[in-house]
Amino acid sequence: MRNFDLAPLYRSTVGFDQIANMMDRVLTAENAQPTYPPYNIEKLDDDAYRISIAVAGFADGDLSVEVREKALIVSARKAEDDADDKTYLHRGIATRAFERRFHLADHVIVTGATHADGMLHIELERQVPDALKPRQIEIASKTRAIGKDVVDAKSVN
Fold this sequence. Notes:
Layout: H1 7-12, H2 17-27, E1 39-45, E2 48-54, E3 63-68, E4 71-76, E5 98-103, E6 108-116, E7 119-126, H3 142-145, H4 153-156
Antiparallel strand pairs: 1-2, 2-7, 3-4, 4-5, 6-7
């Protein structure tokens, strides 16, 4: 078990408490991470991503894509059919049930999902609100700060 001191992170940042939670979650996760089903995460643009999951053997109705509490949850459950009557000499295509979780950053939303050729593609986009985008603040000079609405005391008396 590794122990990390996150105190330097807290000394130089404000509002990044969730990073410590994420690091704790990653570091305390079990060593044996599930490898089924295989997936790719692609960066398509500065604010666009795609998760591609290999789901051979699953139909559209067997798959579920859900966003809950800042997590993308992809699951599949194969519908029971007459497959028990078949005799396989080799069964290399796994169609067992699975659930895969992806934790989403702030302002990342799922924009769509497609299922084609045994691949489930989930499109994601980071949409930063205008209020959080960088903006230039004009610096007023001291003479400019005194407005026309301010009345000079000598002119009133």
